[in-house]
Structure to design on (106 residues):
């Protein structure tokens, strides 16, 4: 992971500060024990402690990313696919993001 800005997903330095998770892999023998979810929660805590506006992660696109997208959708709260807003410069990856800033209600 690294601290960067949203535009880093398409190789430009623009947007709000975020923690970007490039790659998370859990060995098959350790999967289904909550380790991946726990690691993501720790990264979210680190992002909040460093005043980041959000958390973004790269997930493989297409068939190779089926398991990863299922993990994000079922185990991680608040993440949505933002490919249309912050398209990747690499077509083999999708971007999922979570805002860490509370939205003000009018």
């Amino acid at each position: 992971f690294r601290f960067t800005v949203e535009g880093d997903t398409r190789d430009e330095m623009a947007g709000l500060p975020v923690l970007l998770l490039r790659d998370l892999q859990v060995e098959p023998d350790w999967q289904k024990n909550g380790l991946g979810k726990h690691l993501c929660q720790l990264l979210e805590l680190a992002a909040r402690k460093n005043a980041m506006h959000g958390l973004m992660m790269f997930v493989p696109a297409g068939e190779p990313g089926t398991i990863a997208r299922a993990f994000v959708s079922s185990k991680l709260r608040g993440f949505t696919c933002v490919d249309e807003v912050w398209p990747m410069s690499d077509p083999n990856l999708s971007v999922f993001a979570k805002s860490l800033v509370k939205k003000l209600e009018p």
About this structure: Residues 64 and 92 are 9 Å apart (CA to CA). The helical segments are 35-49, 66-75. The two ends are 35 Å apart (CA to CA).
